[in-house]
Design goal:
This protein has about 600 residues and is mostly beta strands. It is built from 9 helices and 34 strands. Strands 11, 21, 22, 32, 33 and 34 form a 6-stranded antiparallel beta sheet that branches. Strands 23, 28, 29, 30 and 31 form a 5-stranded antiparallel beta sheet that branches. It has a 4-stranded mixed beta sheet with strand order 2-8-10-9. α4 runs antiparallel to α5. The chain starts with a helix and ends in a 50-residue tail after the last strand.
């Protein structure tokens, strides 16, 4: 009779048998490590683990209510399985009661569980207990923990655990409770925390928050488990290595100046010839000579004569050479005519003075060539502006007036040089060669570059300005600038031009009538020609840097000891110090050998 009852029970329990086919590990579940020897974080790792190379650990949703924290690198996306938990090829239940299905999955997942007493304790209208629901499911390629969590979530159940208690509780979810927040610290590898924070914050809910830590280069993220996976995936995509671009430039500036001057230039004679006639000065003084003064007081007249109060005439008398020198030296004050009623013309000799004859003979050609080549080279991050310059700051002197002190009408004026005169965010007096390049990698092998070369110099002409009788001078700066954008394949060269300057001038000078005579007219003509040409070519070659382009450099500096560097002593012949005869001379002097 007993054998028949056992056979009937086996037949009734046959549909509820569970078939397991494991391919991830050949060892059976019975030989796995018991839960007491597994760290508490292993439960969390089974549901939300990162890649094994990053050793990431995340807490499950139920652990969030206890304030548990987890850490995962940004580069590791959350995995669906833990590395230590095997993946079952197939898991199936056929009308198995829910508590029994939970117990079997917990045993396979190495979990010690206990049910909330309020679960499965319902009583029907007739007073009989309500039977728990049956499970009829089939999963493939999942772990026991994944199947357990999916089963609990489907029936409104959850896992609660204490950090110090290895036994977890199966309880019902509160439908009114908000989803718990999880605090996660994410390590960044390449990006700045403040840069990524804005993008991630835009995808989070109002309850979630994110904070940067600049010192450790980490992000502190507090969000729900559902938002955590998406945030980690976004951070892993943004936190990528910034590519670099090698920028090689070549700036060539050639200058050619041609000057030709031929003929006779009569400008010094005929352009401003000063002629004067007279025997006295209308202004100025005579530095040498003899004078005859009258008795009594004298009064100076505007025409140069000096008359006394007693009507006695006193006239400046000078020798001829001194008088002519004074007139020639001061043409604007020369000339005039002096006479009186008593003696007539005094002195009796009048003089005709002129500047003289001056001519310049020119028969010469001048050819000046110059070539300046610059080779700036730098490595830039993708999208970062680089400035390469070889400049010289020309001082501009500025006058500063201090506040007047007590009893003074005006303050003390001082002149100071200004080497950084800013005009519209540009240093005006900074001259030389500048090259600003911003590379942007476009596609697999193209580089979109923004190039802004600038060539500046100080003009030979000085600007002058007169204000309230005070003449002020200032240099003139010559600038040539070009701004362009172009897409260049990596390793190819972009050639820029258009900053050329070609100046040609001709000057003809001749004496009227005489310069037009055939044959001898060339003696009264002068021709000058000037041709200046400045050409600038700019070559820019962007090259995308690969990881294999860098080569390690061996050094023993970090392993060197902190020892005093030996120095050699200069001999008395090469030293300016007096010899110390009180110290004996060493037979061997130390010599530094690097």
């Amino acid at each position: 009779m007993k054998a028949k009852i056992i056979l009937i029970l086996i037949i009734l329990a046959a549909p509820a048998l569970v078939s397991l086919a494991q391919t991830a590990t050949p060892e059976p579940y019975a030989t796995q490590t018991p839960y007491a020897a597994v760290p508490p974080d292993a439960i969390a790792g089974a549901t939300n683990a990162a890649a094994a190379s990053t050793n990431a650990v995340a807490a499950p949703a139920s652990a969030a209510s206890t304030g548990a924290a987890s850490t995962s690198p940004a580069a590791a996306a959350p995995a669906n399985t833990a590395e230590s938990e095997p993946v079952a090829e197939s898991l199936s239940f056929d009308d198995l009661p829910l508590p029994d299905a939970i117990r079997q999955l917990a045993r396979l997942a190495d979990l010690n569980i206990q049910f909330d007493p309020r679960l499965f304790s319902g009583v029907g209208p007739n007073g009989a207990p309500i039977a728990p629901p049956t499970v009829k499911e089939k999963w493939k390629n999942v772990t026991a923990m994944q199947a357990l969590l999916a089963l609990l979530d489907n029936y409104g159940l959850q896992i609660e655990r204490e950090p110090k208690n290895p036994i977890v509780r199966i309880t019902a979810k509160d439908p009114k409770a908000l989803e718990a927040l999880i605090t996660t610290v994410i390590q960044l590898n390449y990006s700045e925390p403040t840069n990524i924070m804005q993008e991630v914050k835009a995808t989070l809910s109002e309850r979630s928050s994110i904070f940067p830590d600049a010192r450790t280069h980490q992000l502190v993220l507090r969000t729900t488990e559902k938002e955590l996976a998406a945030a980690q995936k976004l951070i892993a995509s943004l936190d990528s290595a910034t590519r670099q671009v090698l920028i090689e430039a070549k700036i060539i500036e050639t200058t050619k100046d041609l000057t030709s001057a031929k003929g006779i230039d009569w400008t010094g004679t005929l352009a401003s010839q000063h002629i004067s006639f007279g025997n006295g000065l209308t202004g100025g003084t005579v530095s040498s000579g003899s004078t005859t003064a009258s008795q009594g007081n004298s009064v100076a007249n505007p025409n140069g004569r000096v008359t006394g109060v007693n009507n006695t005439l006193t006239t400046v008398v000078s020798n001829s050479s001194s008088f002519v020198t004074s007139i020639a030296g001061t043409p604007s004050a020369a000339g005039g005519f002096s006479m009186n009623t008593a003696n007539g013309i005094s002195p009796a000799t009048a003089f005709l003075n002129a500047d003289g004859v001056s001519a310049v003979l020119s028969f010469l050609n001048t050819d000046a060539d110059s070539r300046t080549v610059s080779f700036p080279r730098t490595v830039s991050l993708d999208g970062v502006k680089n400035e390469l310059m070889a400049v010289q700051n020309v001082p501009i002197f500025e006058q500063q007036q201090s506040a007047p002190s007590a009893g003074a009408s005006q303050g003390l004026a001082t002149v100071k040089p200004n080497y950084d005169l800013m005009v519209e965010n540009v240093i005006l007096n900074e001259v030389g060669v500048k090259l600003a390049v911003t590379p942007r990698i476009a596609g697999p092998s193209n580089v979109l570059i923004t190039v802004q070369p600038e060539i500046s110099s100080v003009d030979a002409v000085i600007a002058t300005s007169t204000l309230s009788g005070q003449v002020s001078t200032s240099p003139i700066f010559d600038r040539r600038r070009l701004l362009t954008q172009a897409s260049v394949p990596s390793g190819y060269t972009l050639v820029l031009g258009g900053l050329d300057k070609d100046i040609m001038s001709k000057t003809y000078t001749k004496v009227p009538l005489f310069g037009d005579l055939p044959g001898i007219g060339g003696l009264f003509r002068h021709d000058s020609k000037e041709h200046s040409r400045d050409t600038i070519l700019i070559f820019v070659t962007p090259t995308i840097i690969q990881d294999t382009d860098f080569q390690p450099t061996g050094t023993d500096f970090l392993r060197s000891r902190n020892e005093n560097m030996p120095t050699s002593k200069d001999s008395s012949w090469d030293s300016g110090l007096p010899h110390d005869w009180t110290k004996p001379k060493t037979s061997v002097e130390p010599v530094y050998q690097p």
